[in-house]
TrEMBL record:
Pfam families: UDPG_MGDP_dh, UDPG_MGDP_dh_C, UDPG_MGDP_dh_N. This is Nucleotide sugar dehydrogenase. SUPFAM superfamilies: 6-phosphogluconate dehydrogenase C-terminal domain-like, NAD(P)-binding Rossmann-fold domains, UDP-glucose/GDP-mannose dehydrogenase C-terminal domain. It comes from Shouchella hunanensis. Residues 314-409 form the UDP-glucose/GDP-mannose dehydrogenase C-terminal domain. Keywords: NAD, Oxidoreductase. NCBIfam families: NDP-sugDHase (TIGR03026). Belongs to the UDP-glucose/GDP-mannose dehydrogenase family.
Amino acid sequence: MKKQNIAIVGLGYVGLPLAIECSRRGHRVIGIDQDQGKVHDLHRQRSYINEVDDKAIEALMNESFTVTDQCEEAKQATVIILCVPTPLASTGTPNLCYVQTALKQLAPHLQQGQLLILESSTFPGTTEEIVVPLIEREGFLIGKTFFVGYSPERIDPGNKQFHLTDVPKVISGMTSECLQRVKDVYETIFKELVPVSSTRVAEAVKMFENTQRFINLSFVNEMARACYELEINVEEVLLTAETKPYGSSAYRPGPGVGGHCIPVDPLYFKWKVNQVGATTRFIDLAKAVNDEQPDYIVKRIRSLIHSVEEAAILLIGLSYKKNTRDTRESKSIGVAERLIQAGFTIAYHDPFVPVYTLCDQAYQSITIAEDTLAVFDLVVLLTDHDDLDYNKVVQHSKCIFDTKQCLSVEGPHIHKL
Ligand SMILES: NC(=O)c1ccc[n+]([C@@H]2O[C@H](COP(=O)([O-])OP(=O)(O)OC[C@H]3O[C@@H](n4cnc5c(N)ncnc54)[C@H](O)[C@@H]3O)[C@@H](O)[C@H]2O)c1
């Protein structure tokens, strides 16, 4: 297949790695992001995502790659891939404003024969009901003069085991011709394609993947609470259960499920399902358990502290998962804010999050040194970053609450979730 001009709209955790892969496969890439800071960083060959190093950006900028904040540039593309955020509104319902705004900005520049692929995670029906009408408004005939597909991104930032292009790629199209065109492009980038019968199926696949993870993670947090009450070591239970060679998956407890996907996508799905009058009881329950988890962590912290006024607490890890700077929906932040509101004096350490505003107050990540650890009455491990000196934490902290099973050692001053 001849090399394509691929415009990638949204150069974040999903779009930037995809842009790199497209470029590595010899396609000409037009990276478009409305965030001028990101555009500026890319022009200076600097990465703003810790999963992507500066060298990859350097290589990218040396090849046929341009980066801009102007959607207009997409008119030169043969393929447009949308990787914009799909967050929740304050009401907990889908907020598709990024998808809609990007499409409205692109609309006047769309060209006959182009293929547009939505990669953002969203509820079944989005491509058909929201994306397609905006394109048809420009006078195009889907499957004839313009082509539309949906392909959910399955990237797991920070996962060194599975490279983006090794993960089978689910693809779909509004018509068979649309699907064929998605296939033609993505087979040059991904090792294995998984075509499905409709965009609604592909959207539902993504919803299922993340919802089952959300439900299981919420259940494992409930299991941890139950085991604590029963004075059973939950870690031993989980590790032993995983020795069963079939029907068992590894899930670990923690301060609650965070990130832009796992706690968000189930609510996209719930909204759509509830719209047609059906129930989503598992999702509702998992959400309730997940929402309670920071309160539960604070309750356990209180049980380890004698006096709120005198206690100083060090929180380790603000990002929602290890080895990333992404703090979206992070439950560590929920824990931190609850502690501040309750009157505790807190500090935090996170090598990936140098500064953060908590309860309208700016905090800076402190360095972990032997004497600083000793100052705190309690050290709470909230994110299991790889490059932390856990030995130092164990040796020099007065009391530790490990919510992420970071520590393999036991001790009278170590308390686990
Ligand atoms: N982060 C993940 O691990 C992950 C994994 C799988 C799927 N997803 C899904 O992929 C989508 C993108 O997530 P992300 O984590 O990459 O988000 P992100 O916030 O890291 O990146 C999105 C980018 O889109 C840009 N943007 C927004 N509106 C724009 C517009 N109108 N024009 C140009 N640029 C625009 C933003 O500036 C931002 O840089 C979401 O739907 C998410 O659910 C994310």
